[in-house]
Amino acid sequence: MIDISRSALLTDLYQLTMLQAYRQHGQEETAVFEFFVRKLPEQRGFLMAAGLEQVLQYLEELHFTAEELQWLAGTGKFNHDFLDYLKDLRFRGEVHAMAEGTLFFSDEPILRVTAPLPQAQLVESRLINLLHFQTMIASKAARCVLAAPDKQLVDFGFRRAHGAEAGVLAARAAYLAGFAGSATVAAGPLFGIPTYGTMAHSFIQAHDDEMTAFANFAATNPGAVVLLIDTYDTEAAAQKVAALAPRLHQRGITVKGVRIDSGDLAENARRVRRILDQNGLHDVTIFASSSVDEYLIKEYSDDLVPIDGYGIGTHLDTSADAPYLDCAYKLQEYAGRPRRKRSEGKSTWPGRKQVYRHYGDNGIMLNDVVTVVDDLRDGRPLLQQVMHDGLRAQPEPSLTALREYAAQELASLPAPLCELGREPPYSVLISESLRKLAARLDSAKLDDAYDLPRVQ
Amino acid sequence: MIDISRSALLTDLYQLTMLQAYRQHGQEETAVFEFFVRKLPEQRGFLMAAGLEQVLQYLEELHFTAEELQWLAGTGKFNHDFLDYLKDLRFRGEVHAMAEGTLFFSDEPILRVTAPLPQAQLVESRLINLLHFQTMIASKAARCVLAAPDKQLVDFGFRRAHGAEAGVLAARAAYLAGFAGSATVAAGPLFGIPTYGTMAHSFIQAHDDEMTAFANFAATNPGAVVLLIDTYDTEAAAQKVAALAPRLHQRGITVKGVRIDSGDLAENARRVRRILDQNGLHDVTIFASSSVDEYLIKEYSDDLVPIDGYGIGTHLDTSADAPYLDCAYKLQEYAGRPRRKRSEGKSTWPGRKQVYRHYGDNGIMLNDVVTVVDDLRDGRPLLQQVMHDGLRAQPEPSLTALREYAAQELASLPAPLCELGREPPYSVLISESLRKLAARLDSAKLDDAYDLPRVQ
Questions:
Q1: Rounded to whole angstroms, what are the CA distances from A262 to A214, A291, A428?
Q2: Shared domain check, A427 and A309
Q3: Partner-chain contact A344 B230, CB within 8 Å
Q4: N or C, which end of chain A is more exposed by having fewer CB within 10 Å?
């Protein structure tokens, strides 16, 4: 049986046909691949790196099961020698990467794999699959956090996430970026993420009247009484909450909040706040959901709409305004020689690279420099070794620690980017040494750089 | 350990807190929920139902493991009686649904669950998660197929899919809708989907020259020689293919095709076609990838661009132009009485419903009627019973059979919708009996419909 989340067959067919050719022709020297984003989406001024832990787990565990090899044999595409070779194939390379939660920009590698060519090649598909998704979600979530740093933000997106793994990884990426937690229960045991929940309209509808529904829910779940008030008439329901709250209070049950999930959320929140306040329920919070994204949160924050927290689902888990990143995992060096792809509109900066970040006296990010690894520079080097010989170089960091680091990163972001704008764009400088290397490769007028001096 | 793709915790926390209240207050009568799309995205004139098989598998297998129950107990949110109850909870309901591959429109339920309230409620999150994603992808893929029915379309999207499950389910949904297959290897053993692959730029770059790369790949993979020709200079590479092909031919190896993955695909394809034809390589096909979607395919088809097949990745697997569907799973009846949610902008058609489809003499779809189930009508009823007492009512259909059915569905689509337009929209009529039921519920001026006569 194929394990949907762990199979070595979670790869593109061409990786295996290429590996078969590498194997047959002895191309097993050291390759260096880097993962980077070519160009930020129009709607993004920065990105937040995420997904590294899942990549490292994948690399540590990667192997072909007997059943997988049998299936491959049955395709008739692979010879015996190659299938034998796959049986023993493990990832034994080095990985350098930016820590999860690090902010980054276009043309900056966030991960570098250094390994025998077949190993570094095989892992491409799943590695992009894992880094692309969580980075996209963490970046979207970070924008929501910046739009309302003092609000409680909860991931509500499981139902619109693309399958199960997307649901739990979206919860993880959003928590990393500063969300309070997720409604997705599995994210609790998997990642230790706090889980949140209220009630659905169906709960109200399944009762003969709304008041009974509220009372029943509170009686059974006294520790988490957040009542959904927009099933029929939002203001009427708020009045019911006002009538119910003192009765519950006598039984030691506190109404924590109400949730509004439809209509003009701002207008509804103002009316509901008035009703709650008129009844002395100043501590009952208002939680809003339904098509929420960072643009709406920012508008409401600017307008001082009395909403205390947001459930963010569809727009978060699909990154709806920027539903993909233009990212790539590209060969930058093979057998000691830098490589450069020159396809129209898709050329890459060659060689092994490092990114140095500089800060102003106020601790705010000033600019980054992308350069070749042997061009040592001042500044903070963002890529650090995280895997050695196929094993983690450090123990797995806690998600809480990564989340705190991500918050520090957001605190160092220049003001225009905090405002969700893109102008002026953050300054990423390509070093002179990197430009020279690229020019030398281009001027070689060869298919490739095979007459260039070996590096390192 | 939590099984990421099968855990009963793949649900929202509120389902469990609601279930605890249902349990405590004895609300276990029969509930009817329906899944439907409220409104088609601007960019869609029709949708294709998909994901049912995964839903049925989930419902058949659903149970809480000892470890999951232990984790729930540790949250302190759930009482002993409820945890005991969860231990034995299984889905034992009925499901009616449209077959996968069926075309549908807004306000039409594509799936109806009839089960004791807690069972029907609990499954909401994962059921939407599964139906939403595959339906969205099948709908996008169907548009690609309509744009170029005679081209070979292959899913290249695994790397930009949202995790592993999204990758393999996207491959499945695209194949259902008429794609030739997928590059994702795991989709082969999981679903019997044909897998396709060529080579990556890294393969070319890892060789000292492009010609050696081509020759090595062909020697090792003689049955699948599709050469990637845009790593450095596309036309120069096409000339190399022309030089290499006769030499390979002498060794019994046929160059099947070339792939172009950058630049102006149409212009590049025309130039490459000329070079291939000038060298007598009329049977070598041209395969194109890079930011391909149905709009580009349609434009190229209209312009007779000499491209024989497309690899469609990012835009397919993220449904980039319409990255989510406005879908819902709503309570329509409880304890024999129809229910209607009346939230602003989100009100629903109440009761158990059926959709009847009518066809013209030419076999083309004419209109649909949505009505209550006891309002028997002429026309083809689209919802059929697929699960009885928690077990499949029929054996699992083969994906090939579903794919043939989907092709028939597309063949019956009115011409304007085949052209990817939305005007005139397909006619979905709400029956008089359904309108009357909704009006009766509204005029009851009650929270709910508890004084209405019981149905069925």
A1: 18, 9, 42
A2: no
A3: yes
A4: N
Compute the nearest-CA separation of B120 from chain A (Å). 10
How many Cβ atoms are within 10 Å of B218's Cβ, its own excluded?
23
Residue where a domain terminates, one of A317, A345, A376: A317
Question: For B16, what's the count of Cα atoms within 13 Å in the CB-facing half-sphere?
Answer: 29
A180 close to B (CB below 8 A): no
CA distance A153 to A144: 8
With respect to residue A201, please indicate whether it lies within any of the assigned structural domains. Answer: yes
Asked whether residue B392 falls in the same domain as residue B270, the answer is no
The reply to whether A37 and A155 lie within a common domain is no
Task: Name the amino acid, one letter, at B165.
Answer: E
Interstrand relation of B30-39 and B326-334 (parallel, antiparallel or unpaired): antiparallel
State the Cα–Cα distance between residues A94 and A102, nearest whole angstrom.
20
A4-22 exposure pattern, b = at least 16 Cβ within 10 A, e = fewer? bbbbbbbbbbbbbbbbbbb
* Domain co-membership, A279 together with A386: no
Please check whether residue B169 lies inside any domain of the structure. yes
- Residue B440 CB-density burial (10 A; 0-12 exposed, 13-18 middle, 19+ buried): middle
Spatial distance between the Cα atoms of B176 and B142, rounded to a whole number of angstroms: 9
Which of residues A269, A295, A317 is at a domain's end? Answer: A317
| pTM across the whole model | 0.96
Instruction: Say yes or no: A418 and A386 in one domain.
Output: yes
Minimal Cα–Cα distance from A195 to chain B, Å?
7
Give the model confidence (pLDDT) of B68-127 as tens digits. Answer: 999 999 999 999 999 999 999 999 999 999 999 999 999 999 999 999 999 999 999 999
Q: Are residues A233 and A359 in the same domain?
A: no
CATH (domain of A278): 3.20.20.70
Total number of domains in chain A:
2
Read off φ and ψ for residue A426, nearest 5 degrees.
Answer: -65, 145
Regions of chain B short of the pLDDT cut 70: 445-456
Residue B3 lies in a domain: no
- Cβ pair A129:B169 closer than 8 A: no
User: Angle at CA A77, nearest 5°, toward A72 and A79?
Assistant: 85
Residues A416 and A429: their CA atoms lie apart, in Å, by 19
The residues facing A337 across adjacent strands are A334
Q: What is the pLDDT of residues A278-291, one digit of tens each?
A: 999 999 999 999 99
Report residue B341 as tokens.
């949610």
Residue B163 phi, psi dihedral angles, 5° rounding: 90, -175
Q: What is the DSSP letter of A373?
A: T
Tokens describing residue B192: 């019997």
**For residue B70, what are its two tokens?**
């232990």
**Chain centroid to CA A413:** 18
Do B128 and B186 lie in a common domain?
Answer: no
CA nearest B74 in A: which residue?
A189
Residue type, B85: Y
Per residue in A414-452, pLDDT tens? 999 999 988 899 999 999 999 999 999 888 755 443 434
Q: What's B344's DSSP letter? A: T
CATH code assigned at A395: 3.20.140.10
Query: Could you report the predicted ipTM of this complex, rounded to two decimals?
Result: 0.96
From the list A263, A149, A89, the residue with the least C-alpha distance to B342 is A263
Is B60 in the same domain as B183? no
Q: Are B122 and B15 in contact (CB under 8 A)?
A: yes
Q: Does A287 touch chain B (CB under 8 A)?
A: no
E runs forming strands in B275-364: 285-288, 309-312, 326-334, 337-338, 353-359
3-state secondary structure of B437: helix
Q: Which of B31, B117, B200 sits opposite A14 (nearest CB)?
A: B200
Tens digit of pLDDT for each residue in A81-108?
999 999 999 999 999 999 999 999 999 9
B135 touches chain A (CB under 8 A): no
Residue A3 in any domain: the answer is no
Q: Which domain does A117 fall in, by range?
A: 13-137+322-443
